[in-house]
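Chapter summary example: a protein plus nicotinamide-adenine-dinucleotide.
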Amino acid sequence: MSRLLVTGGAGFIGSNFVHHVIAHTDHTVTVLDKLTYAGNEASLAGLPEDRVRLVVGDIADAAVVDPLVAEADAVVHYAAESHNDNSLHDPRPFLDTNIIGTYTLLEAARRYDVRFHHISTDEVYGDLELDDPARFTESTPYNPSSPYSSTKAGSDLLVRAWVRSFGVRATISNCSNNYGPYQHVEKFIPRQITNVLRGIRPKLYGTGENVRDWIHADDHSSAVLTILDKGEIGETYLIGADGEKDNKSVVELILQITGNPTDAYDLVTDRPGHDLRYAIDSTKLRTELGWKPTYGDFESGLAATIDWYRENEAWWAPTKDGVEAFYASKGQ
Ligand code: NAD
Ligand code: DAU
């Protein structure tokens, strides 16, 4: 049994990880989360109080971070400003949380010699051409495009430096696009699902041809537990589930599953600097650590996600109007 400190555990992927840990291990979890607009205590509802504790605080605040890291067996670091569109509007919080926050946690991990796992993104590698058969691997050069992805790239490099210079026992994972329950309605899939549930037409940026490589958040969680358990210190592992889809196909699938005409969407203003395509080659994680995804069928995972948003309107409704007003102000 281990004591995990999970930063950002009230966000989308962090809360999915906490649910996964409680269901599949006997670890206890302390969540450290600032509860920004993206964090929601309700995402942790129903978890056993004797195994899950929420501390509300900032990962960039050493006075909060230090005692929590000191008492942990491992830190799993999810907390971040995570949305590309927000980073184009106001980059500063991305620097504060993704760079200074990660630095603050690394210093604490170094001080108390605590195992550290850093959650990162495939976006650090930039993008691929639509017709390029290549996929990202652990040796693809870093080439981030947005303020969000550049701060995540910076945080990855800090982790590597703290391993090499100070001997911090850290690993890194870079995952592709996640979907599943508890994702904020600002993101692509929940925005389109909740639009359809509200009778609003889905909004596709540009031509809708951009490709993302989808993985269910629960598969991301099992991969992270595998790396915590068997990963080699100092190594990076790419996490992906061979789920490449263009955005238009995803919207058409949401419309089809919900019984709507598949062309009932709008093309809207494109995202500046919009990355064309992401694709992950997760051979290293699969062959060296023996991980494999369990959600093989994107369509059924998406249908279950649609059901979750239909059944949990109280979770997302308070944020929906504000998100749509923000997008409308940008023609999106
Ligand atoms: P999210 O925005 O849903 O959640 C982020 C959480 O971090 C929120 O609960 C928020 O309150 C918290 N947080 C933000 N700033 C904080 C601070 N200064 N101190 C403490 N807590 C703070 O994000 P997500 O989509 O769940 O992403 C989680 C992690 O996974 C991020 O590091 C992201 O880069 C990475 N990631 C995301 C995806 C994806 O598809 N969403 C894919 C790969 C990697
Ligand atoms: O690849 C991993 C990354 O995936 C994570 O690091 C990020 O934290 C996460 O937000 C996600 O980034 P994206 O920018 O790919 O996700 P987003 O949900 O914002 O958009 C997915 C695609 O859908 C992208 O091509 C933009 C497009 N899009 C998005 C929205 C919100 C639309 O076409 N319409 C929309 O309304």
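Key point: The longest helix spans residues 92-112.
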